[in-house]
Specification:
By secondary structure, the protein is mostly helical. It has 22 helices and seven strands. Helices cover 50% and strands 7% of the residues. The longest helix is centred in the middle third of the chain and has 23 residues.
C-alpha cells in the first residue's frame, strides 16, 4: 500500500481509565476483531495510558466493526480488572478452553494453507506443553512458527527432534499460551483465581493442540467432523457465565404485557429486530452485563451503517422500552440505554410532503393502466392497482389499505365504507375506524372488484414493498414518501376546503388534540360529507 493509501486507514484509539493505568501498563492482550465481518483481524497490543493501533482496512463498514469489537473487549478488561477473582470447576475451565479451540478452527478452516505450517505450530506448542523447551513465540491465533521451529528443531524429522528432548524440564506455558488464555477469560468476563491459572493454561494448551491437529487435517483435504471437538462442554454450562436475566427473556416479558395493552404486531417486529441486533453486537444475551459503555459502542457501530434518524427512530425506542420496562419491574436496577443520546437531524424541506396534483394524476394513470405480469399473483397486481387509490381518498396508511379483507368493505349508515380494523392486521392507533368509500373509487369499479374477490384478504400478503416500489417508479422524487404522501395530501386538501379538522383526523386515524375534541362521536354521516367534498383526481 502506498503512503497516500496508508494515510486513509482508520486508527483505533482508546484511553485507559486513569485509575487502571498503573495496574495495566505494559500488559499485552490479544484482540480477535471482526467476528461478524470478514476478513478476521488479529492484533497483539500493549497497554499504556491508551491503546492505539491501525484497523488495517479502508473499508468503513469493516473498520467500524473492528473498532466496536476492540472497544468492547477492552471495556470487558477494564471491568474485570476491578472485579473479584472467582474459582471455576475443572469442567468449566475445559468449556472456556473450548472457546480457544473453536476460534482457531473458525478463523482458519476455510483456508488452512499448507499442512506443514500446522506441523510447525503444533510442534512448538507440544514442546512447550510437555516442558521440552524453555520458550516459544506466543500463540496468537496466527500461524507463523516455521522460522522458529527450524532454529530449534532443525530441518529433520520434527517429531523425532521433539521427542529427543527430555520432557518436564521447563515451564513455558505462560509465554506460549498466556495471551490465548487471557483472551478467553476477557471474552467471557471471567477474572480467574490466580491459583487456578496454571491449570487453565494447560487446558488452553491442549485445546490449541487439538485445533492444530484438526486444521492440519483440513489442510490435507479432510473435513470430517473432529471427534475431539465434542470433548468441550458448551460454554453456556459455565455457571459463572450464566446470565441471571437474558435480554431476549426481558423482551418476551415486555411483549407479554405490551400485547395485553394493545401494542401492535408491527411494534413487536420492529422492537424484536432492534433487540436482536443489540444481542448480535454484544456477543452475549446477559442483560445484567450490559453497561452504558456497551450501549455507546453499539450506537457507534450502528452509526457506521445507518443514519442517525434510523438509529433514533428504529433501534432505540425498542431497546429503551424493554430495558425501561425491566427497571420498572425490578428486573434491572438501571437502564443502560439511557446513556445513548442521538441529536435529531436538522430537517431541510425543499418541497411539500404531499403528492402534487400532477404526481397524483401520474400515479392514478399508472395504477389504472397496470397490467398483471406473467406469473404474478393476482392479488399482488390488485394491490398495485387499488392500494394507492384507496390511500388517496381515505388518507390511510398503505399497509392499512393492503390488509383489507372482503368483509371489511361493507354497508354502514347507508354508505359503502371501509372498516379499517385491527382484526385484519396492524392499525397504529389500535382502534378500528369506518371510512366511507369515495364515489370516484366506486365509478372506477372498486366495488365490482370486491364482489368478484374470494373471501378473506383482498390483496397479497407481503405486497407492501412492491406497492411502495411501484409508486416510487412513478414518482422518483425521494423528498416525498410513497406511503405518507397521500396522508399529507389529504390534510392539505381538507385545509384548503375548510373541512372540519376533527372529522378529517378521524378519517385518518389521528387522535383528538384536546379532551374537548374527544367528546361525542364522529359519525359515518359526518365523514361521508367530508369524503364527498374531496375533489376527484382529474385524469
Amino acid at each position: 500500500m502506498d503512503k497516500r493509501a496508508a494515510s486513509t486507514v482508520p486508527q483505533f484509539r482508546c484511553r485507559v481509565p486513569t485509575k487502571l493505568v498503573d495496574q495495566l501498563r505494559g500488559k499485552r492482550i490479544l484482540l480477535h476483531l471482526s467476528r461478524r465481518t470478514e476478513p478476521a483481524c488479529i492484533k497483539v497490543v500493549t497497554i499504556g495510558t491508551d491503546v492505539a493501533f491501525s484497523l488495517e482496512t479502508t473499508d468503513e463498514t469493516i473498520a467500524g466493526a473492528r473498532h466496536a469489537d476492540a472497544l468492547e473487549h477492552l471495556q470487558r478488561l477494564f471491568d474485570l480488572t476491578a472485579a473479584a477473582p472467582i474459582k471455576l470447576s475443572h469442567r468449566e475451565m475445559v468449556a472456556l478452553a473450548g472457546a480457544v479451540y473453536h476460534t482457531y478452527v473458525w478463523v482458519h478452516e476455510d483456508n488452512p494453507g499448507e499442512p506443514g505450517r500446522w506441523a510447525w505450530h503444533k510442534g512448538l506448542s507440544r514442546a512447550i506443553y510437555e516442558g521440552r523447551i524453555r520458550d516459544a513465540p506466543p500463540a496468537t491465533l496466527k500461524v507463523d512458527d516455521a522460522g522458529t521451529g527450524l532454529v530449534i528443531f532443525g530441518s529433520g524429522d520434527l517429531t523425532e527432534a521433539i521427542n529427543a528432548l527430555p520432557a518436564g524440564q521447563y515451564d513455558g506455558l505462560e509465554g506460549r499460551f498466556g495471551l490465548l488464555a487471557d483472551w478467553a477469560l476477557i471474552r467471557h468476563r471471567v477474572r480467574l483465581a490466580p491459583d487456578q491459572r496454571k491449570h487453565f493454561l494447560k487446558l488452553v494448551a491442549a485445546a490449541s493442540l487439538d485445533a492444530a491437529w484438526q486444521l492440519r487435517r483440513n489442510a490435507e483435504g479432510d473435513y470430517r467432523p473432529d471427534p475431539m471437538a465434542q470433548r468441550f462442554p458448551p460454554i453456556e454450562s459455565v455457571a459463572a457465565l450464566k446470565p441471571n436475566q437474558t435480554i431476549s427473556g426481558l423482551f418476551d416479558l415486555w411483549w407479554k404485557e405490551a400485547k395485553a395493552t394493545g401494542r401492535s404486531q408491527s411494534t413487536h417486529d420492529t422492537y424484536k429486530g432492534a433487540i436482536d441486533r443489540l444481542i448480535k453486537h454484544l456477543g452475549h444475551d446477559d442483560a445484567g452485563r450490559v453497561s452504558e459503555d456497551d450501549m455507546l459502542a453499539f450506537k457507534n457501530a450502528r452509526l457506521k451503517v445507518v443514519s442517525a434518524k434510523t438509529l433514533k427512530d428504529g433501534d432505540l425506542p425498542g431497546i429503551k422500552s424493554v430495558f425501561g420496562w425491566a427497571v420498572d419491574n425490578r428486573k434491572l436496577t438501571k437502564n443502560p440505554a439511557d446513556a445513548i443520546k442521538v441529536k435529531s437531524e436538522k430537517k431541510i424541506r425543499t418541497r411539500s410532503k404531499g403528492f402534487t396534483d400532477e404526481e397524483a394524476k401520474a400515479i392514478f394513470v399508472a395504477c389504472l393502466e397496470y397490467v398483471r405480469k406473467p406469473k404474478e399473483d393476482a392479488r399482488t397486481a390488485a394491490a398495485k392497482k387499488w392500494g394507492p387509490l384507496i390511500a388517496c381518498y381515505t388518507g390511510c396508511r398503505i399497509a392499512e389499505a393492503l390488509q383489507l379483507r372482503k368483509e371489511d368493505i361493507r354497508e354502514e349508515s347507508n354508505h359503502r365504507a371501509f372498516d379499517f380494523n385491527p382484526a385484519a392486521g396492524s392499525i397504529k392507533s389500535g382502534s378500528y375506524r369506518i371510512v366511507p368509500v369515495h364515489q370516484h373509487l366506486i365509478d372506477l369499479g372498486f366495488l365490482r372488484f370486491v364482489e368478484g374477490s374470494d373471501d378473506g384478504p383482498l390483496f397479497a400478503r407481503g405486497s407492501y414493498k412492491r406497492v411502495v416500489d411501484f409508486v416510487r417508479a412513478v414518482v422518483a422524487d425521494k423528498r416525498v414518501q410513497p406511503n405518507h404522501a397521500w396522508r399529507h395530501r389529504l390534510k392539505t386538501i381538507a385545509r384548503n376546503l375548510g373541512l372540519d379538522h376533527r372529522v378529517v383526523d378521524c378519517i385518518q386515524g389521528h387522535a383528538a388534540r384536546t379532551s374537548g375534541e374527544d367528546y361525542g362521536d364522529v359519525t359515518v354521516m359526518a365523514m361521508a360529507r367530508v369524503i364527498s367534498a374531496i375533489p376527484r383526481v382529474v385524469l
